[in-house]
Specification:
This protein has helices at 11-33, 69-72, 192-197, 311-318; strands at 96-98, 103-105, 141-142, 145-146, 151-161, 174-175, 178-179, 217-226, 232-240, 245-255, 264-272, 279-283, 290-292, 296-299, 319-320, 329-330, 337-341. With 357 residues, the chain is α+β, with helices and mostly antiparallel strands. Among the domains are: 80-108, no CATH class; 139-341, no CATH class.
């Protein structure tokens, strides 16, 4: 990018300077609104390179030409997208609504999935296991149209094992009338079989320094990214981190497929509150076994449905109250994707070995 004649061929350089030109033109519009001619070049006698008639490095152009209306008319800029409480859609999944200013701005990690939230009031820069009762306000937008009825809800099973850095829960076994504080009773390292199946298979993925301390309660964050539609969804579920292994249920939204339209395709992802990625497994329709998959789903109106048209249907597809109203049966066959948050010692998105399929 150091050569002026070819610098604009670099996509990053081009986008960067197009953005600068956009703000330069907004400044010129502000000058016009105040009755100031934006084509008047400022007097900068202290720097010979920046005087009006100094060359720019581009043949035939002087510094003063950068202020000319002739150049300005060669580009037209779209208006800045705005939003409000009643109209939170920004028309772009890479923008969120900043309510305090009514502007659409790029999200930070803590605001993804909270497009109607005021991001200036957020002090967190990453997902943290706090405020467990604080829900995520999704905008339910597909493009510029925001409507909950446009979304379907997929039930997701989450299998979580005790994090590798969880040292002790301070609940110990008693051996011969003496408390044994070497390992707590929930630690998978305390027993031969759980150590073989859980601890010995775990890696030690990098995480935030705040996650080095033991916390018995955590969260798993679920996402869906539209692949053939402009939509995004985020939700979380609570997990018990002290147990060697536990199972919980989450629900994630995707664009509802309409009769006669193409499939709704989305990429589902999950990670814990420390940023450690969970790997996906999808149910094989031929064997009903769960096998490692990418987490990409294609949802159609064909039966069996992978989703509920709302939370009511999604919940009742998992819990069969007709079986027993006081103790509903969990219909495990209605889970089509499972996330395993087991901190493996290999890259979570790698293809599994054939013998593990």
């Amino acid at each position: 990018m150091s050569l002026l004649n070819t610098a604009a061929f670099d996509p990053t350089f081009f986008l960067h300077h197009a953005y600068i030109d956009f703000w330069f033109e907004r400044m010129r519009n502000n000058l016009r609104a105040r009755g100031i001619n934006p084509a008047i070049y400022p007097n900068v006698p202290t720097n010979a390179r920046h005087v009006a008639n100094a060359t720019t490095g581009f043949t035939g152009y002087r510094q003063v030409d950068g202020y000319s209306e002739t150049l300005a008319r060669r580009a037209v800029y779209e208006p800045v997208p705005t939003c409000s409480v009643t109209s939170p859609a920004c028309g772009n999944r890479f923008l969120v609504c900043q309510l305090s200013s009514g502007r659409c701005v790029p999200p930070v990690r803590s605001t993804i999935g909270k497009r109607s939230a005021d991001i200036e009031s957020s002090e967190d820069t990453c997902d943290k296991p706090r405020n467990f009762d604080l829900p995520y306000q999704n905008d339910f937008c597909v493009g510029e149209w925001c409507d909950f009825d446009e979304w379907a809800i997929i039930p997701v099973k989450i299998v979580h094992v005790r994090p590798p850095k969880f040292k002790t829960y301070n609940s110990y076994p008693v051996i011969s009338n003496t408390v044994d504080q070497r390992l707590d009773i929930y630690s998978p390292k305390a027993y031969n079989e759980t150590r073989r199946f859980i601890s010995n298979r775990q890696g030690n993925p990098l995480t935030y320094s705040r996650c080095n301390r033991d916390m018995s309660v955590g969260q798993i964050y679920l996402y869906s990214h539209g692949l053939n539609y402009p939509g995004f969804y985020k939700e979380s579920t609570i997990i018990d981190q002290k147990l060697p292994v536990s199972v919980t249920i989450g629900y994630v939204g995707v664009k509802r497929p309409a009769p006669g339209e193409e499939l709704s395709k989305a990429l589902l992802r999950a990670h814990d509150s420390c940023g450690r990625v969970c790997h996906a497994a999808c149910r094989d329709p031929d064997t009903n076994e769960f096998k490692a998959c990418s987490g990409a789903v294609a949802v159609s109106e064909e039966h069996p449905l992978l989703f509920g048209n709302d939370f009511d249907e999604a919940v009742l597809s998992v819990f069969d109250y007709d079986f027993n109203k006081d103790c509903p049966k969990v219909q495990t066959d209605n889970f089509y994707i499972t996330f395993y948050c087991d901190y493996p010692n290999k890259f979570p998105f790698a293809h599994p070995d054939p013998q593990e399929m």
